[in-house]
Structure formats: structure tokens, C-alpha cells
Design a protein that fits this description.
The complex is a heterotrimer of chains A (284), B (344) and C (250).
Chain A (H helix, E strand, L loop, with lengths): L1 H28 L6 H19 L3 H22 L9 H23 L15 E4 L2 E4 H23 L1 H11 L1 H6 L4 H27 L5 H16 L5 H20 L6 H13 L10
Antiparallel strand pairs in A: 1-2
Chain B lengths: L1 H14 L5 H16 L4 H21 L10 H16 L5 H23 L4 H21 L1 H4 L24 H23 L1 H11 L1 H6 L4 H27 L9 H14 L5 H20 L4 H14 L2 H16 L18
Helix pairs in contact in B: 2-8, 3-8, 3-11, 3-12, 3-13, 4-5, 4-6, 4-11, 5-11, 8-9, 8-11, 9-11, 12-13
Chain C lengths: L2 E12 L2 E12 L3 E5 L6 H9 L6 E6 L2 E2 L5 H7 L1 E3 L12 H12 L14 H13 L15 H14 L4 E5 L7 H12 L6 E6 L2 H5 L4 E6 L2 E6 L1 H6 L1 H13 L1
Helix pairs in contact in C: 3-4, 3-5
The chains are: A mainly alpha (284), B mainly alpha (344), C alpha/beta (250).
Pfam family, one (chain A): BPD_transp_2
GO cellular component, one term (chain A): plasma membrane
Organism (chain A): Microvirga lupini
Chain lengths: 284, 344, 250
């Protein structure tokens, strides 16, 4: 029981790291970026390729799994995404679906359609018994890393000058511009950072979520659930939503495997119908 | 003076309802392919079905402004309804079509209340969610749907008791084309009716539409239900003419594809779905012949380019072009005699 | 004269802010009534309450003696209460012809009609023509609304509201943004509407309404400050003071 809870928390934290970048694009730029998962996939493949083909140790690949997608995100934001901020949601959806299709096919072409397996270092394998609860080492590792990231994000948002500017820009881009804040620079930075986090999440999650070319499509709905259910004005909302989703998904698959993802989707619809602004947000 | 204006007003309004030469040509050519392209009937059949599916999406996206990422829900439900009926011995195609339309319409009606709340993003998520839930149900209820193996053992009876389906797809194509044509006529009538006008006004400015006294929600529920029924019929056509249904009919890529089809052809003038279906299928044919596995990449690229190049502008251009060719009616409105009002 | 529109003790609070403060107001049949007040006096809130865009905290609203307090906006329109918006609310992608045609056919119950071609009914055509002429829109009927000059858009806005054949027409600053030269012409068009339509005009510019209204109410801080004929209000020193106080602030 507690093991499932533990696995669920690890899964949820992973989802948060994967999806929080999307929360920012959505909340800050009001941009529906269905291609977010593609950046996560990029991170995953960077780790997998570096490890399997070049023998780079797992931990050493993680910074690259962050930097690679971040640069990719920065380039795409500056060249393509920024043209679409003022467009209709339909255009944004079409554009990002197009990107997903391209990413899926391109990865398939370069690395084949099979699952990418990564070999975790031995000190991260296996389980230990803590107070009678079976705890996976790798999942503990994920919880520690992701937990640290959450705290760091929260600190950046609340304590730094960048954070306060970002929040101002989320609140009202026009007013923020009026205050002399370079909103477009903030857009680019956060987009790159969010993409980087997604990449890191993809790398960390390769072992748990699986990694193949359809990754962006398979997990798109999960990321979207996190941000729509959690809301986009703070990071606490998406964080709680991630945990809920993670625990519910793991528990659901364990106890009632025949029902599958059905419950998750139904719950999402119910939440969205009752609280269109998100579960943790005051109705506006 | 005032009668002149009245004539002008009338002809301006009625002109939209009149068939242009280009439109008539379009359908004549479609009918001619029944005789002139016999070896292509299988793919033409698919085009007709996708065209109808995209047409149904155009009704809600182009005329009511609802962005849906889960339109396959209705398509799939229609396909399974028709497929299951035929498997269980009710082999009459028209019966299956009707049942599929009703089933999809009911689902559309019920879910419309969920979809019509909230922002664009909520709509996206709810439509997507509905399709996913349906996909899960179809996957789990394998006793009914065949699950991942697909629904097998569909045998169709002859249409109207007269026309047997043949292996070249000729009957199938004629059947799908006829159904698509008939439903197109209905849709065409609807969009030029006062009801259709009110839908366009809602898409343009819902707040103002309310201020004019239009019951916005009721109108949207109606069109969503209608579009669902259309999509259900399209799905049923696919099930009946291919005699197979798989989980694929409910998949996300189907919802995405149909959106792409509509966007290629242009949103908001009904022919967009049909033209898009032709372009899409031909492209798919050409690209898959060249690089079978990775054609998705090129489709994605096309989407990105269309959006970056300014979708609305492109659509506007296609539409004007279309109006130029197809919208030309026999008589120009100025020379219209006062008596020929063409009441309908 | 009978009463076309009446409010009794209307209150609207937003949190701690009282936007409408116990307003009891009567609009007489056939009146050309103006509601003026400085910026932030709660004029638009009041009109939003009347049309049902927002719900009052307390109080009642009556249209021709029947209570409409809880009615949805579109039902109020169908009962004969139409409005225009302070900022143009039009259908940018439709032509004026379609816009007016829409309003007319909706009123005649045509919006549920999905089989007939719009414009196949004689009565609808006649009415479109009548309205287009009244509001001097005949020369732009087939243009895209978004391409119209601003003054024409304002006229169309009023024309659409009028096409709903209202008993009561609420105009929220119809002349806002219209070039000075066209303002009086626009208001003259409104004043010349049939007398069975009662008009409540909301306006910031006091001098503009003197030529138009036969009765004026002044709203200050959400409450009715004073009411009277043009003569009375225009010479009331307190009203001048309210406006002067505001213009000092600006």
C-alpha cells in the first residue's frame, strides 16, 4: 500500500517536472503548446544515446538532457513560437500538433521505433526496506531530485527579481510592459527553461515512463491534465495536480487494471466541467 | 428607390443560397469519377468519407467556432454502432447508418453541455477527454467491440435490397458519395438559413449575439449535436464499406487528421472539408509511395507551414478563388427581375 | 404617461464596493431620457443590471410592469429591452445587411428556421430596408462590418438594437469616439425614432444630451443624485459642481 503511495509520489513529481514548463507557456503566453512532450522526448533521447552509444555515465548525461532541449526551446521560441502568441488557439493547436508529428517521425527515422532502454547505475537499482515499506532506490532518487527542483523553482519565483518580473508578466503582460519589464525576454527565458526541465524530466523518466517515438503523443494528455486541473497562476496548483494524478494513476493501474486510464480521463472531465479554472484556483 | 434597395437586399441574401456553376461542376465531376476512374474507387470512397467527416467538423469549427480535439469520438461511435449491428445480423446498410447517426447525436447532445463551458483550452481538453474515454471503453469492452483485435465478421446486405457491395469498391463509393452529397445539401441549406446566420454571429461575437436575443447555448447545442450525427454517419460509412472497425477509429490522430484536412481545404465554407479530403488523400498517396513510414513528418511540416504562412489569409484566398469560380450564378443580382425571387 | 421601465431599490455590490446604490428609477413611455454622471458613477453597471449581464445584489427591475429581475439577457431582449454597448460590439466578419437581417429574423422567430434561405420572406426584406434607410446604411450594406467607418459602425450598432423592435432602447454612450461633426446627427437619428420606443441614453458628455433628452437623471457614486427636465438639471449648480469636481481631478 505505502509502496504504491511512494511510487505514485515519485511518478507525480516526475510529471510535475515534465509539465511545469507547459504551465508557464500556457499561463504566461496563453499558448497551447501540444508539442511540449517533444522537448521531454529530446531530453530522454539525449540521455539514452549518450549512455548507450558513447558510454557516458547516467548522471553526467542529465545536465545535457537539460541544456539540449533548453537550447532547442530557445531557438524554436525565437524563430517560430513567438510569431504565434497573438494567433487563435486553433492556430496554436495546429502548429504544435504539426511539430509533434514532425518530431515523432524524425525520431522514428533516426533511432527506430523501438523502446529505448537505459541501464541505471548499480547504486540506483534495487529496493530497500525502510520501516517495513519497500522503497525503490531510483524512485527515491527521483523524489529527491524533483523535490529539490520544486523548492528551487518556488524560491526563484518568490525570492528573485526574475521571479517577481515573471509573476508580473503572468498577471498582466501589458501592465508589465508598461513597467519597463522586457516581457519578450522573459517569455524566451522561461520557455527555454521549461523546455529544459521537460528534457530533464524525460531523461529521468525514461526508465519509468518508457521512451519511444510516440512519447509526446502518449503523455500529451497527462501534461495537459496537470496544467488544466492544476491551473496556471502558481506552481503549487500544477504540483498538487501532478501528485494527485501520479498517485491515482499508479494506484489505479495496480488495483483496478481493467479500468485502465478510464478513471483518469473521466475525473479530468468532471473537474474541468465543475472547475473550468482548475481545481486549485479561485474562480475568476 | 426603396424598391431598388429591397431588390438589392433580397438578391444579396438569396444569392448565398443559390448554387453556383462551379459547385454544380464539382459534384458532376465527383459523379463522373464513378465511371471514369473505376480502379480508384477504393481511395475515392475514403475521400468521400473523410470529406463528410471534415464537413461535420466544419459545422462546429467553421460555423460555431468550437475547437475540438476529439471529434473522432463521434466518428468512432458511429463506426462501432454500424459495425456491431451488421455483425449481429442487422445487415441493412441504411438501418446501420440511421442507428449510427442517432447514437452519435445522443452522445453529441449529452457531451455538448460539457463542451460548451469554459475557455478554448477547456473545450480542447473535454473533447479530447471524451474521445479518450470512449477509446478506453472500446478497448476494455472487447466482448462487444473485439478490443484491440478489431471488430470482425461484418457482412453487409445490399443497399436498399438492390446493390450488393463489390470488391472493387464501386458500390461502396457510389453509396458513400451519395450519402455525403445528400448530407452536404442539408448542411448547405442550414448554413444559409437564418439559423446558420445566427451561428456565424455567435462565432463572431457571442456577447453581441446574446444582445440581439439569440439563445446562444441552445443554438450551439443544436449544431454540436448535428455535427456529431454527421460524424457518426461518416464513421458508419467507413465501417460498412471496409467491413472492419478497429480502435483506430477513436484514436487521437484521427481527430488531428480531420482537423488538418479541414484546415488544408479552409474553414467555414463547407467545401473546405471536401477539397481538403481530396488534397490530403492524394498527398498521403504520393508521400507514402515515396517514404511509407515517415509520411507523418511531411504532414506535420505542411501543418506548420500552413499556420506560419497565415492560415486565415490562405483560407480567405481559397474562398475568394472558390467564390470566383463557383459562386458565379447565372444572373448577376442587378439584372434580377423583381418577380424572380426564387422562393423556397 | 405609463412607465416603460422601472427599478426599485436596485443595489449592486462588488465586494466592498457599492457600484449601484439603492437606485429607484422610472423611464416613462416614449421618453427620451438621459442618464448622465461623471466617470465611475456606475452608469455602465446600471445598464448591465438592466439588461441582465450582471445580477443585482438586491432590488427589482420591471419592464412594462412585469418583473424581469431574474431573466436571462436574451429573454429580456425578446421581451423588448435592447441595448448598445459603449465599445462597438458588432459581428466584424458579417455585412451590415446580414447583421440587420439576423436581428430581424431572430425577432420574427426565424432563428430556429434552418431550412429556409435567409431573405426569402417579404416581411424580413421590407424591415431590413426600412431600418437601413432610417440609419443611412443603404450605401454600405454589402461591406464587411470591420471595414466600415467608425461613425457607420456606431449607427449599425444602434440599428441592430432597433431591429430587435424594443419597447425600451438602452444606449450606452452611443456617440463615444464619433467625430464631433457627426455626433449631433447621430443623436438626431435616435431622437427621431418612433415614439413608441422609449430611449434611455447613457452619456458622459453633459452638453451633448441637452439637445436630445426631455428628461435627465444624474448618477453620482452609484446613487441617483438628482432628476428633472433639461432646464432644471442644466441650471442646477450642484450638477455643475459634480462635473467640475471631476474635471479638476482629471
Amino acid at each position: 500500500m505505502l509502496t504504491i503511495l511512494f511510487d505514485g509520489i515519485a511518478y507525480g513529481m516526475l510529471l510535475f517536472v515534465l509539465a511545469c514548463g507547459l504551465a508557464v507557456t500556457l499561463g504566461l503566453m496563453n499558448f497551447v503548446n501540444l508539442a511540449h512532450g517533444a522537448f521531454a522526448m529530446a531530453g530522454g533521447y539525449i540521455t539514452a544515446v549518450l549512455m548507450n552509444r558513447m558510454g557516458v555515465p547516467f548522471l553526467a548525461t542529465l545536465p545535457l538532457a537539460f541544456i539540449g532541449p533548453a537550447i532547442l526551446g530557445l531557438v524554436l521560441e525565437r524563430t517560430l513560437y513567438k510569431r504565434l502568441y497573438t494567433r487563435s488557439h486553433l492556430d496554436q493547436v495546429l502548429f504544435s500538433i504539426g511539430l509533434v508529428f514532425m518530431a515523432v517521425a524524425a525520431i522514428d527515422y533516426s533511432f527506430g521505433s523501438q523502446q529505448q532502454l537505459i541501464q541505471l547505475p548499480s547504486w540506483l537499482q534495487g529496493r530497500v526496506d525502510i520501516l517495513g515499506v519497500q522503497v525503490g532506490l531510483y524512485r527515491s532518487f527521483i523524489i529527491v531530485i524533483c523535490g529539490a527542483l520544486v523548492v528551487a523553482l518556488q524560491l526563484i519565483l518568490t525570492k528573485t527579481r526574475f521571479g517577481s518580473r515573471l509573476r508580473a508578466a503572468v498577471d498582466d503582460p501589458r501592465v508589465a510592459r508598461g513597467l519597463g519589464i522586457n516581457v519578450s525576454l522573459i517569455f524566451a527565458t522561461t520557455f527555454a527553461f521549461g523546455s529544459g526541465l521537460a528534457g530533464l524530466g524525460g531523461a529521468l523518466g525514461a526508465e519509468i515512463l518508457g521512451l519511444d517515438p510516440t512519447f509526446p503523443l502518449k503523455f500529451m494528455i497527462y501534461f495537459l491534465i496537470v496544467v488544466t486541473v492544476g491551473g496556471t497562476t502558481s506552481i503549487t496548483g500544477p504540483f498538487l495536480a501532478s501528485l494527485l494524478l501520479g498517485i491515482a494513476d499508479v494506484a489505479g493501474k495496480y488495483y483496478v487494471p481493467s479500468v485502465g486510464a478510464f478513471v483518469i480521463y473521466t475525473l479530468m472531465i468532471v473537474v474541468l466541467v465543475l472547475r473550468p479554472q482548475g481545481l486549485f484556483e479561485r474562480a475568476r | 428607390m426603396s424598391t431598388n434597395i429591397a431588390d438589392h437586399v433580397r438578391s444579396s441574401l438569396v444569392r448565398r443560397g443559390r448554387w453556383g456553376i462551379g459547385e454544380i461542376l464539382f459534384w458532376l465531376i465527383a459523379a463522373a469519377t464513378l465511371y471514369f476512374l473505376p480502379e480508384r474507387h477504393l481511395i475515392l470512397n475514403e475521400i468521400a468519407i473523410i470529406g463528410l467527416f471534415a464537413l461535420s467538423l466544419d459545422l462546429i469549427l467553421g460555423y460555431a467556432g468550437i475547437v475540438s480535439l476529439g471529434h473522432a469520438a463521434f466518428f468512432g461511435l458511429g463506426a462501432y454502432t454500424a459495425g456491431i449491428l451488421a455483425r449481429d445480423g442487422l445487415a441493412d446498410p441504411l438501418l446501420g447508418l440511421g442507428a449510427a447517426a442517432i447514437a452519435a447525436a445522443i452522445l453529441g447532445f449529452v457531451t455538448s453541455f460539457l463542451v460548451l463551458r469554459g475557455s478554448d483550452l477547456t473545450k480542447l481538453m473535454v473533447t479530447l477527454g471524451v474521445a479518450l474515454v470512449l477509446g478506453e471503453i472500446a478497448n476494455q469492452a472487447s466482448w462487444l467491440t473485439g478490443g484491440a483485435d478489431g471488430l470482425q465478421g461484418i457482412t453487409m446486405g445490399p443497399i436498399l435490397g438492390l446493390f450488393e457491395f463489390d470488391i472493387f469498391g464501386t458500390t461502396a463509393y457510389a453509396y458513400s458519395l451519395t450519402v455525403t452529397f445528400l448530407l452536404f445539401i442539408v448542411a448547405r441549406r442550414i448554413v444559409v438559413s437564418p439559423y446558420g446566420l445566427s451561428l456565424r454571429s455567435i462565432r463572431d461575437n457571442p456577447l453581441k449575439a446574446r444582445a440581439v436575443g439569440i439563445p446562444v447555448n441552445r443554438r450551439l447545442v443544436a449544431v454540436y449535436t448535428l455535427a456529431a450525427a454527421y460524424a457518426g454517419v461518416a464513421g458508419a460509412l467507413l465501417a460498412q464499406t471496409t467491413q472492419f472497425v478497429s480502435l483506430d477509429v477513436l484514436a487521437f490522430h484521427r481527430s488531428a487528421d480531420v482537423m488538418l484536412v479541414l484546415v488544408i481545404g479552409g474553414v467555414g465554407y463547407l467545401y473546405g472539408g471536401l477539397i481538403g479530403a481530396i488534397v490530403f488523400k492524394v498527398l498521403q498517396d504520393v508521400i507514402s509511395a515515396w517514404t511509407p513510414q515517415y509520411w507523418q513528418f511531411w504532414i506535420g511540416l505542411i501543418l506548420v507551414i500552413i499556420v506560419l504562412a497565415g492560415r486565415e489569409r490562405l483560407t480567405e484566398r481559397v474562398r475568394t478563388l472558390w467564390k470566383g469560380v463557383a459562386g458565379r450564378t447565372a444572373k448577376s443580382p442587378e439584372t434580377l427581375p423583381k418577380t424572380s425571387t426564387r422562393e423556397v | 404617461m405609463t412607465i416603460a421601465l422601472e427599478t426599485k431599490g436596485l443595489v449592486k455590490r462588488f465586494g466592498g464596493l457599492v457600484a449601484t446604490d439603492n437606485v429607484s428609477f422610472k423611464l416613462e413611455h416614449g421618453a427620451r431620457h438621459a442618464l448622465i454622471g461623471p466617470n465611475g458613477a456606475g452608469k455602465t453597471t446600471f445598464i448591465n443590471l438592466l439588461t441582465g449581464v450582471i445580477k443585482p445584489t438586491a432590488g427589482q427591475i420591471f419592464l412594462e410592469g412585469q418583473e424581469i429581475t431574474g431573466l436571462r439577457p436574451e429573454l429580456r431582449v425578446q421581451r423588448g429591452l435592447a441595448r448598445t454597448f459603449q465599445i462597438n460590439q458588432l459581428f466584424p466578419a458579417m455585412t451590415p445587411l446580414e447583421t440587420i437581417g439576423l436581428a430581424v429574423s431572430e425577432r420574427l422567430g426565424g432563428g430556429r428556421d434552418w431550412w429556409r434561405v435567409t431573405g426569402s420572406k417579404r416581411e424580413i426584406i421590407d424591415e431590413i430596408v426600412e431600418i437601413a434607410q432610417r440609419f443611412r446604411l443603404t450605401d454600405v450594406l454589402d461591406e464587411r462590418t470591420s471595414n466600415l467607418a467608425y461613425g457607420k459602425q456606431r449607427l449599425l450598432e444602434i440599428a441592430v438594437a432597433f431591429a430587435c423592435r424594443p419597447r425600451v432602447l438602452l444606449l450606452d454612450e452611443p456617440a463615444a469616439g464619433v467625430p464631433e461633426a457627426e455626433r449631433h446627427e447621430l443623436l438626431a437619428t435616435v431622437a427621431a425614432l418612433p415614439r413608441d420606443v422609449s430611449v434611455l441614453l447613457i452619456e458622459h458628455d453633459m452638453d451633448l444630451v441637452f439637445s436630445f433628452a426631455d428628461r435627465i437623471s444624474v448618477l453620482v457614486n452609484g446613487a441617483l443624485f438628482t432628476e428633472g427636465t433639461v432646464e432644471e438639471v442644466s441650471t442646477d449648480p450642484r450638477v455643475r459642481a459634480v462635473y467640475l469636481g471631476e474635471s479638476v481631478d482629471e
